Amino acid sequence: MQVEIQKWGKSGAVRLPAAVMQEVNVALGDQLELQTLDGKIVLIPTLRGYRLDDLIQGITKANLHASVEFGTSVGREVQ
Predict the structure, then answer these.
(1) Which domains does the chain have, with CATH numbers?
(2) Cα(79)–Cα(75) distance, rounded to whole angstroms?
(3) Which of 63, 23, 31 is nearest to 49 (CA)?
(4) pLDDT, tens digit (0-9, with 9 covering 90-100), for 28-50
(5) Rounded to an integer, what distance in angstroms lies between the CA atom of residue 31 and that of residue 34?
(6) What is the pLDDT of residues 5-31, one digit of tens each?
(7) What sign has the CA pseudo-torsion 26, 27, 30, 36?
(8) Shortest CA distance to 44 belongs to which of 34, 30, 56?
(9) Among the listed residues 40, 39, 36, 45, the one whose alpha carbon sits nearest the alpha carbon of residue 16
């Protein structure tokens, strides 16, 4: 696949096609690490951080599991 470097302010920019973004599991707003390797340009997706509030909002009745009993408290957990 060929793409064209275009002007963006004083920099050059390349558009990432939606199919490529989907294939490598990146989305708008994600961070990428830019490196050069033997004359090649390499973009590496950085790990996404998760926020507790976002994870909690993803809890639904369909994906909420039942509580699990592990027996009576023992050791230092009895306080």
Answers:
(1) 6-64 (2.10.260.10)
(2) 9
(3) 31
(4) 988 999 999 999 999 999 887 78
(5) 10
(6) 999 999 999 999 999 999 998 999 889
(7) positive
(8) 34
(9) 45
Return the residue matching tokens 């993803």: 58
- Phi, psi dihedrals of residue 16, rounded to the nearest 5°: -100, 120
Residue 11, strand partner residues: 8
Residue by residue, what is the 3-state secondary structure of the chain? CCCCCEEECCEEECCCCHHHHHHCCCCCCCCEEEEEECCEEEEEECCCCCCHHHHHHCCCCCCCCCCCCCCCCCHHHCC
